[in-house]
Design goal:
alpha+beta, 8-stranded mixed sheet, 48% helix, 18% strand
Length: 806
């Protein structure tokens, strides 16, 4: 019996080649999109799940408000994790990790003998780090590798890059960054077992060196939220109950410090398995991804597959009258309804299987392109993971059953007597269902097209928005090594033709400012003063960056220690921006001395960081001799950048021999802040085109069926004098009405989704009516072009052929 089902199914599919081809192509393309998106989402959710103690590891995050400014950071104060282990029996172990970028050490030069290179992914960690985080140990021991001062553990690729075929264990390497130069002994080589939000290539012990001493001696419970802290709970410990104890715990240890800063602070425990999918935290080590974003992608994957299934259902029910006699004959010779249902579901499953078989090599071919769109590194590990095959099998069965369910039950319900007498008409219920499904398809298409228009409008707004500084024609250099004085390099750059200005800073425009502290004016204190972001620079910054002074003057020759503040900081200090120059600001650090700054000018507000956030209180501190001024920005007027960069490289080699020459353009660096939005735009753009194409495949088939079904009507109309244009419009009108209804349904849904997305930006576009109208018009034009082929073909056909059987 089963063999008979398959033979009949294959015979039917081969006999109806156009029908089969449309369904196979639609299902294959839908499956390609669905599988890739599911692989992408799975990869994002797989972060940190490989850890041996994943269920019991929690990150300590800080949620604090200071003089009206609210922050939620992925970091905490240095002493908190250690004190939790001491105070709470639920905590079995703790560890901390530190990103030295806060000290200007963005990258670290590793050197062994003649080999040297810069490494960005380096962490300073406690000796307990590898007791919480799981790696495969190739050399060394997890329990003791970082116990000794000046020890370091390397990831396997980094060790191979530095040592080649030589055994690295026990060797001494040199590490040089803006915090200084140290000799470290390699005590371990590890291999990553999976993706981690704390991915790093170098792990340096905090039990030594300048950075380690600073962290170990820091006893700040309110400020100093700069270290990634983790606790391992004992098996069976209640994390929720422990979280409830953190408020009294923080007040016990840090109440006086919190009052002194006027800070309200709370601590929370975040399961390590959701750290990567928790967006919105400040000072993340690696870029997280929003769980809401992943939910949208998963929904798109499901809906694209459903669109492909809808094509099958529509075409199968549309062609039902051609199979009516087959059903009648089968019933007459004894076939029951169950047999027919199994027959039609078998056809659907066969079609689904063929689509999957075609989809896998197609996905393999398209994988590099998809990875480029999503900026991911996903591989199609067919034989490596049994779960992939389970999902794939589920996709075959789910697609087959979903796409074949209604046709199977619909066709099997035909009455044999009526069908054999020729008394069969295409049921109204089937027509209604097809219309509902077409509306659903095009509603989704219109929502996706609208999303594309709005996302790209927002990205274009970001690209063109006046940030308050000039990001065009700016070349940026970074020096990451200590003991390198680049002032001669700066002076020589100023002499190059095509260079307008050169400035040095300790932070880069377009990136988050890591340095901040409370400031106040006479009559205030640290508890009432606003928290201000601070950037150190020289007297050339205003000219090089193109920021605008609104009062006072620019930095001069002997202005070391003086500041320029932005309008927001002036207002938060209750100062009139036009009268603020000449005022003195103050700040205290712990119980130490009071620092004083004279305001020499006020600059117009500008967006130092992302447009997701409002402009913060901000100040520029003139400190030209500060060794942390490691970022050099060059304002250019040249049109021949290849020649100018070659000259700059020559100057670099002369002033910084042995250091790699790396230059970047500021506008590109600013744009990288919106990588998630760019990826979202790329994904929706790509999969919208595929969704629309799949929808059009179904519409193409339905138009062919409609034209065939109404051939006699068309013949009569032509005999009576109807023109080709009129007949074409008649056949197209029914489908265009469905698209119009889809537009009415899709518009409010698209508005709600995009409104939610735009709310993540502090600076955003206003949605316009034309954005929705464009999507509707585009869908209507696509539908019209799809339908018109068969409509025109039917309209120009000979009426004699259509009517000769009458």
């Amino acid at each position: 019996m089963l063999r008979s089902y398959w033979k009949t199914a294959i015979r039917f599919l081969l006999h109806n080649k156009t029908f089969s081809l449309i369904n196979v192509i639609g299902l294959a393309l839908g499956t390609v999109c669905c599988i890739y998106i599911l692989l992408y989402v799975h990869e994002q959710y797989s972060y940190d799940r490989h850890e041996a103690h994943a269920a019991d590891i929690y990150q300590i995050i800080s949620d604090f408000s200071i003089t009206g400014d609210h922050h939620q950071t992925a970091t905490s104060s240095p002493p908190i994790a250690e004190a939790m282990k001491h105070d709470f029996p639920e905590v079995a172990q703790y560890t901390r990790a530190f990103n030295a970028a806060i000290f200007g050490a963005d990258q670290h030069m590793l050197k062994y003998k003649e080999r040297s290179f810069y490494e960005k992914e380096a962490l300073f960690v406690d000796s307990t780090f590898f007791q919480l985080f799981t790696y495969r140990w190739l050399e060394g021991d997890a329990a003791s590798a970082l116990m000794a001062p000046y020890s370091v553990v390397l990831l396997k690729p980094t060790a191979e890059k530095l040592f080649g075929a030589e055994d690295p264990l026990g060797k001494t390497i040199l590490i040089n960054n803006k915090a200084g130069e140290e000799h470290l002994r390699v005590t371990g080589v590890v291999e990553a077992l999976g993706r981690s939000h704390l991915e790093a290539n170098v792990f340096i012990t905090l039990n030594s060196g300048l950075i380690g001493r600073i962290i170990r001696r820091n006893q700040g419970w309110a400020g100093g939220n700069m270290i990634y802290s983790y606790v391992l709970l004992r098996q069976g410990a209640d994390a929720r109950a422990l979280s409830g104890k953190l408020g009294p715990f923080l007040r016990t240890h840090g109440e006086q410090q919190l009052k002194a800063l006027g800070m309200h602070k709370e601590l929370h425990l975040l399961p390590i398995s959701v750290v990567h999918t928790t967006a919105g935290l400040e000072v993340e080590w690696s870029r997280s991804v929003s769980a809401f974003f992943l939910s949208i992608l998963s929904l798109i994957a499901v809906l694209i597959q459903v669109i492909a299934c809808i094509n099958f259902m529509n075409l199968m029910t549309a062609r039902a009258f051609k199979r009516a006699k087959e059903v009648g004959v089968r019933k007459v010779i004894g076939a029951g309804r169950g047999n027919l249902i199994r027959q039609f579901l078998g056809e659907s499953l066969l079609l689904s299987l063929v689509a999957i078989v075609l989809a896998l090599p197609l996905l393999w071919l398209l994988m590099p392109w998809f990875n480029q769109l999503t900026r991911a590194d996903i591989t199609l590990a067919l034989a490596g993971d049994y779960r992939f095959w389970i999902v794939l099998s589920g996709l075959v069965v789910g697609t087959g059953l979903l796409s074949g369910s209604y046709p199977a039950f619909y066709l099997s319900a035909f009455q044999a007597a009526r069908v054999m007498k020729g008394n069969f008409t295409n049921r109204v219920s089937a027509v209604g269902l097809r219309r509902v499904l077409v509306i659903f398809q095009f509603s989704l298409s219109i929502i996706l097209i609208t999303s594309i228009v709005i996302i790209y409008s927002q990205l274009d707004y970001i690209k063109k928005k006046d940030l308050g500084f000039d990001r065009e024609q700016k070349v940026v250099f970074n020096s990451y090594s200590s003991g390198v004085d680049l002032r001669e390099f700066e002076e020589e750059l100023r002499l190059l033709p095509g260079v307008k200005a050169v400035t040095a800073t300790n932070s880069q425009l377009g990136k988050k400012i890591m340095s901040d502290f409370n400031v106040y004016v006479a009559g205030g204190n640290m508890a009432t003063g606003p928290d201000a972001k601070a950037m150190m620079t020289d007297k050339y910054f205003v000219r090089a960056a193109g920021v605008h002074l609104i009062s006072g003057r620019d930095f001069g020759e002997n202005d070391s220690g003086r500041v320029l503040i932005n309008e927001t900081l002036a207002r938060r200090l209750s100062l009139d921006p036009m009268k603020a120059p000449g005022t003195r600001m103050y700040s205290n650090y712990g119980e130490g001395a009071t620092f004083s700054f004279e305001i020499v000018g006020v600059i117009r507000d500008f967006n130092v960081g992302s447009l997701h956030e409002q402009v913060d209180p901000f100040m520029l501190i003139c400190d030209p001799k500060n060794p942390s001024l490691c970022t050099i920005m060059v304002s250019c007027s040249s049109v021949n950048y290849r020649s100018l960069l070659a000259q700059m490289e020559t100057v670099w080699r002369r002033n910084a021999p042995g250091l790699p020459f790396e230059a970047a353009f500021l506008d590109e660096e600013v744009q990288r802040q919106y990588e998630t939005e760019i990826i979202l735009g790329n994904i929706i753009n790509c999969f919208t085109l595929l969704a629309v194409f799949i929808s059009c495949l179904g519409l193409f088939g339905l138009a062919a069926f409609s034209a065939e079904q109404r051939s006699k009507e068309i013949g009569i109309r032509k005999v009576l004098g109807a023109r080709v244009a009129g007949i074409t419009a008649l056949l197209s009108a029914d489908f265009l009405k469905l698209v119009l209804l889809s537009f009415v349904i899709a518009t409010p849904v698209a508005w709600w989704c995009m409104h939610r997305w735009l709310e993540t930006f502090a600076y955003r576009i206003t949605m316009q009516w034309w954005m929705f109208g464009f999507a509707g018009l585009a869908a209507a034009l696509v539908a019209l072009m799809t339908v018109s082929f068969h409509a025109i073909r039917a309209a120009v056909g000979s009426p004699v052929r259509a009517l000769r059987s009458e």
